[in-house]
């Protein structure tokens, strides 16, 4: 069984440039033009797939990362120190703040790492986070994610990757087999150009459905 990225040469030590502008990724976009975070700039963070993920992930064997040989994946040792510095610098640069998409690949790998993001949200009132996690809602890391989603509900939206409808303040991202109440990601159907022009994931509570990759 695979337990790490197929592309070990693409692993990088965290130094500078960990947060990539959304303009490097056609799907993300850079300047947010819709919704409550309009005006902020979108960045993303990529960690190593599988090493940072729960083995229960439905895409363990057909991970999105298997088709991304050239993506830089950052190693996690001391990543908080480097991220802290970089976020402070981006906050100086973008007066309306930034949004960070967690994680293009990889996942929340520890409770302390979730706490790190909580600390960043506390320190930077113009920082916002959005993304998806394969962590289970009822295990320690998932519970901590739920807590920061609720504590910072206006600035932190991490959806659990599950085929479920919104319930008890839990937000979900489903795969294409899901039949419950949902909307299909409009970027995948060509209705919007990018997340920056869409904003639905951090605006609506309804489950977002992704078509298979
Ligand atoms: S629904 Fe919108 S915000 Fe969510 S992933 Fe699709 S394009 Fe991005």
Describe the structure.
By secondary structure, the chain is α/β, with parallel strands linked by helices. It contains 3 helices and 10 strands, in the order ββββαβαβαββββ. The protein has helices at residues 79-93, 111-123, 140-151, and strands spanning 11-12, 20-21, 41-45, 73-74, 98-102, 127-133, 156-161, 172-174, 182-184, 207-209. The chain has an 8-stranded mixed β-sheet, with helices on one face. It binds iron/sulfur cluster. Iron/sulfur cluster is lined by residues 185-187, 192, 195, 198-201, 208.
Biggest pleated sheet: 8 strands, mixed
Tally of strands: 10
- Order of strands across the biggest sheet? 2-3-5-6-7-8-10-9
Overall number of structural domains: 1
Bound ligands, each once: iron/sulfur cluster
Low-pLDDT residue intervals, each spanning 5 or more residues: none
Q: What would you report as the Rg, rounded to the nearest angstrom?
A: 16 Å
- Span from first to last CA? 21 Å
Helix content: 10-25%
Average of pLDDT: 95
Bin the strand percentage.
15-25%
Question: How are helices and strands ordered from N to C?
Answer: EEEEHEHEHEEEE
Lay out the secondary structure.
Blueprint: E1 11-12, E2 20-21, E3 41-45, E4 73-74, H1 79-93, E5 98-102, H2 111-123, E6 127-133, H3 140-151, E7 156-161, E8 172-174, E9 182-184, E10 207-209
Parallel strand pairs: 1-4, 3-5, 5-6, 6-7, 7-8, 8-10, 9-10
Antiparallel strand pairs: 2-3
Helix pairs in contact: 2-3
The protein binds iron/sulfur cluster (SF4).
Task: Sum this structure up briefly.
By secondary structure, the chain is of the alpha/beta class. The protein has 3 helices and 10 strands. Strand 6, helix 3 and strand 7 form a beta-alpha-beta unit.
């Amino acid at each position: 069984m695979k337990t790490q990225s197929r592309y070990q040469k693409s692993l990088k030590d965290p130094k500078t440039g960990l947060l990539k502008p959304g303009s490097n990724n056609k799907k993300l976009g850079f300047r947010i033009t819709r919704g409550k975070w309009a005006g902020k700039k979108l960045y993303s963070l990529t960690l190593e797939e599988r090493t940072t993920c729960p083995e229960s992930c439905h895409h363990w064997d057909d991970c999105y990362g298997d088709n991304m040989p050239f993506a830089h994946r950052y190693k996690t040792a001391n990543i908080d120190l480097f991220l802290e510095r970089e976020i402070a610098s981006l906050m100086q640069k973008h007066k309306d703040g930034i949004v960070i998409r967690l994680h293009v690949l990889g996942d929340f790998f520890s409770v302390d790492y979730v706490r790190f993001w909580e600390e960043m949200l506390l320190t930077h009132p113009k920082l916002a986070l959005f993304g998806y996690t394969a962590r289970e809602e009822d295990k320690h890391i998932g519970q901590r994610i739920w807590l920061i989603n609720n504590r910072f509900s206006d600035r932190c939206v991490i959806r659990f990757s599950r085929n479920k409808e919104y319930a008890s303040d839990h937000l979900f991202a489903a795969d294409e087999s899901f039949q419950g109440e949902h909307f299909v990601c409009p970027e995948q159907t060509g209705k919007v150009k990018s997340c920056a022009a869409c904003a639905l994931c951090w605006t609506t509570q309804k489950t977002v459905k992704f078509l298979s990759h």
